Input
Amino acid sequence: MSIMRETMTRSILAPLTCLLSIYLSFNLSLSGAQSAERPNVLLISVDDLNDWTGCLGGHPQAMTPNIDRLADRGTLFANAHCQSPVCNPSRASMMTGRYPHSTGIYFLSPDLKAAPALKDVLTLPEHFAANGYQTLAVGKIFHSGDKRFFQEYGGNNGGFGPRPKTKISQPHGHPLWDWGAFPESDEMMPDWQAATWAAGKLKQKYEKPFFMGVGFYRPHVPMFAPKKWFD
Output
């Protein structure tokens, strides 16, 4: 029963926290009335974060001072609900404003652009672009293929990698269900590279207001992290 309960909890919370996205407005490059009317927008999406962050009640083994500080600066929605307990339909729903029963996307496929019901529907970044925004992204914002929806895409930086030459937890099974202390440094992690890319872009000046999506793959399985974090 405990295994079933944990599995059900993860299946329900995973897409919720996959879409536990924080919208922030930045007046980095605009001035006066223009910045008030057309603010810069940063979307942060974290995959399978769960609700074990300090600002949502926390967990004895989870220390999240940065997320807690970010939440304290804005509005925290502590009773949010996902459209579907799977990542792909939840992301498609957030990016199009359509329910899964309208899009026909219920699981890991079809891809958003392959769904007939969404043939002529603009996604969130495409809507921003159509209204004069510079659109950028890095990491996992859509389930796949971010570069199709943004004017500039920083890549997935390896996605769920890097992966060891051999499985860590057991020799059989899907590699995404592996776990262990890997790799050697933070800099090797795709999320580190995504954050670095985004930080650099936030420091630049833009002629137009921007919409930037930053999608983090962790803590989604495989549970790889440099040894210092396990320690």
